[in-house]
Amino acid sequence: MSSGTLGWPVWGALTVISGMVDAIAYTALAQVFAGNMTGNLLIMGFAAGGAAQLSVVATLISLVSFFVGAAMGGQLTARVTDVSRRLLIGFPAESALHAVAAVAAFYLPVKTVAGQYPLIVILAVTMGARNTVIRRLKITDINTTVITGTLTNLAADSLLGTGTRTRAGRRTGQIGALVIGAFVGTVCLLKLGLPWALTIMAIFSCLITAAHVLAALRARSGPS
Known about the structure:
Layout: H1 8-28, H2 37-48, H3 56-79, H4 83-107, H5 113-135, H6 148-156, H7 168-192, H8 194-221
Helix pairs in contact: 1-5, 1-7, 1-8, 2-3, 3-5, 4-5, 4-8, 6-7, 7-8
């Protein structure tokens, strides 16, 4: 399956959202990640080892929630074999959960750790489900959540490596998108606060979903 299934605007935007989610989660939600589970496993080890201000409980909540979300994504990909239809279900579901998190942030006692747990659950479930759906597309170098492999491949095929520069543009774009998302998420959080940072992320997510749905509907109604 080619990258054209999503296209740069969509998967690039999804990667930006991933950066925003983890920037907001790590900075404002008990210093855990909602998408980067490798980071969470390390954080759990740090917390268990006694590192100050790191929570084993919060990290476990994020890990379990991500696991549940990934399992839900597995159910979706198993039951809906048509990729286009699968994305038309998955994208709106993700945006809806982002909207739920944004609304909840205005009412939850987010200055307390216990008040942050529901947001961790919502965001980690969302990222787990998306991670499964995107990975099942099997598009090379497109993950949207963790880009260690993308960075490794970029370096291996760079002029310092094999020199082939295979998919260098796509790989560089994904890395840049994640960094941009983390930057935007952090700025929104520090300038506007948690509820509004999540609101901006949710609006961006809804816009991306709407654009994808409209494009998919146009493609279906177009000439065969």
